[in-house]
Design goal:
The chain is α+β, with helices and mostly antiparallel strands. It is built from 4 helices and 7 strands. It is globular. It starts with 8 loop residues before the first strand and ends with a helix.
Length: about 140
């Protein structure tokens, strides 16, 4: 049986989801990131699963033959931190990362406690460069 991804794009209201973020500061930060990503991507935000706001899509295929669609970038206001999804990871962005401020990373996740911990202009550049990279790699005709 083929593995089916649980996190799929759906029609839940992005603003409705963000309005429910309990912590006011995190909610305000989430709306700022929403604005930043709308501006950078030119895409309409969509909910992916129950807690991720995503922008754009690309089709991936693993060596195993498994394939699917995923967002080009996105974010989620988690309880512990604001999580931004930078799909190509951070290896190619070392210089930007040094200027970003206070954060932690996972493979493709950027964890920020609050937006004031980072340089928003650097964050915007990081998101733009990663989106451009993903579009060139996966969506160029």
């Amino acid at each position: 049986m083929a593995y089916e991804l649980k996190t799929k794009v759906n029609d839940v209201s992005v603003e409705g989801f963000l309005d429910k973020v309990e912590d006011e500061k995190k909610r305000n930060d989430a709306f700022e990131v929403l604005k930043l990503m709308k501006e950078v991507t030119g895409e309409k935000p969509k909910m992916w699963g129950s807690s991720i706001v995503g922008f754009g899509t690309y089709r991936y295929k693993y060596a195993s033959g498994q394939e699917g669609d995923w967002m080009i970038t996105g974010f989620s206001p988690r309880k512990t931190s604001l999580t931004l999804y930078i799909m190509p990871g951070f290896g190619r962005y070392e210089e930007l990362m040094q200027k970003l401020g206070k954060y932690k990373t996972g493979k493709s996740c950027l964890y920020i406690n609050k937006l004031t911990d980072v340089d928003v202009d650097v964050l915007k550049t990081l998101v733009k460069e990663s989106v451009d990279y993903m579009n060139k790699k996966y969506n160029s005709a």
